[in-house]
Amino acid sequence: MDLDIPELPFPLRSYGPDGNWSYEDGVLTGWAGPRQDRFVPPVGEALEPASDAPRLLGAPEGDFRLIARVTVGFGAAFDAGVLYVHVGDRAWAKLCLEYSPDVPTVCTVVTRGHSDDANSFAVEGSSIWLRVSRTGRAFAFHASRDGERWTFVRLFTLAGEKETGAALVGFMTQSPLGEGCVVTYDHIAFRPGWPDDLRDGS
C-alpha cells in the first residue's frame, strides 16, 4: 500500500503486517494487531526477535525534522505509537509514546544488531508530540507536551548508514502483549534542516 499525504514531500509505503492505514482531514490512523511488535531482545540466547509491526515509511532527502502529535488508544502494557527510522533489518530506531508498563511514557529503542530500551519521561493522558531529526549520519529524538518547547531525548547513529545514504522514516504501531490498539497522528509537519540546538527547547 502506498499513501501520499500533503504534509510530506515524499510518498509513504506500508511495511510489515497490515496497519489499515488511512488519512483524512489531517489525521493519519494506523492499527496494530494482537502481539505485534518490533524488538530484537538483547538478552537470552533462546529469544527470537519479536514479530513484525505495521510501519508506514518514506525516504526523505537531506537534513530534516519530522513532527507529529501521537495519540494512542492504550489497552495493554507496551501499546505504543511510534516515529520510526529504518536503515536495515537490524539497524533501526523507535521513538514511542508507550504504556510502559502502567503509565504513558516517552521511550526509545535503538537497534544495532540487538535492541536497547530506554524510558525518558512519563506523560499525562494519551497524547504527546514527537520529533525525529536527521543531519548527515546522525539522528535526534525529541518530545513535547505542547508542540512548542521540545525536550531532548536521544542522539545516535545507526550502523551501516552511509554519509549520504537514504534512510526510511515514518510511523509505526505496536501492541506486544495486547489484543491491538489504534494510533492517530495529527499536526504532521516536515521541515528541512537540523535543530539549531538540541537541548535549548527549540
UniProtKB/TrEMBL annotation:
This is Regulation of enolase protein 1. It comes from Streptomyces glaucescens. The lineage of its organism: Bacteria, Bacillati, Actinomycetota, Actinomycetes, Kitasatosporales. InterPro entries: ConA-like_dom_sf, DUF1349, UCP022704. It comes from the Bacteria.
